[in-house]
Structure formats: C-alpha cells, structure tokens
Write a structure and sequence with these properties.
alpha/beta
Length: 131
C-alpha cells in the first residue's frame, strides 16, 4: 500500500525562494505546487486543496499575503498557513503569530522571518501537519 504524499502550496513572488523551497520540500517527500502571486495561488486553490500553504507576506501588494491568508482560512479553516516574510528586515516592523490574538488578525498558523532556514520551515510544517 502506498502512502499518499502531502501537497504544499508555495506562494512567493521571489523565484529563487520558491524554487529552492520547492526542491527542498520535494527532497523531503512532499508534492509541491508553486504560485508567484496571490492571483496564481487562488487559481491553484481552485484546482485542489493543499495540505499546507507556505505564503510570502509582501508580493504584488504589501498586504497580499495577509489578504490571501484570510481568503484561505475563510475557504477552509483547516488548511495550515505558514507566513514567511522579510517585513521586519525591510521595514523594521515586527510582529508574531505566537498568541491567539495575533493569530486572529494575522490568520496564519506560523510566522517565519526571511531568510528562513529550511530546517526551521520543515519543523513548522511537520508540527502543523501532525494533526
């Protein structure tokens, strides 16, 4: 009996980040669907439900990741979302998703600062997919 691979949707306008993350996730045993924008991600979500979404915060609009995360959770609140962002290094603004209050407005299950180490991303993915 074969075990079905989990599918991860990686959404980021940074080609290098998307490609590197895809290769690492595939090497770790995941199927990966890529999207370079929130619009592409919405199309991918229309084609099938991923097991988890890795999502950049700032893409075609500074808040594209927030609005997409809200849309994903409105469509299916059980899809875990990992928000990855360079907003702290680019703007000096800092926020987190460690409390219920922060998660309520961020609408992500985890928040990681770029540059993110793959081991850190994989640890969050494994934690979120355990359930």
């Amino acid at each position: 009996m074969s075990v079905q691979k989990r599918t991860i949707l990686v959404v980021d306008d940074d080609y290098d980040f998307r490609t590197q993350t895809k290769l690492q996730l595939e090497a770790a045993g995941f199927d990966v669907v890529e999207a370079a924008s929130a619009a592409e991600a919405r199309e991918a979500l229309g084609r099938g439900r991923p097991d988890l979404v890795v999502l950049d915060l700032m893409m075609e609009h500074p808040d594209a990741g927030f609005t997409l995360s809200h849309a994903i959770k409105r469509q299916d609140a059980t899809i875990p979302v990992v928000l990855v962002t360079a907003v702290t290094s680019e703007t000096g603004m800092s926020f987190d998703a460690s409390t219920d209050e922060e998660r309520s407005w961020i609408r992500a299950d985890a928040l990681l600062a770029k540059p993110v180490r793959f081991e850190q991303l994989k640890q969050e993915i494994n934690r979120l997919l355990k359930g």
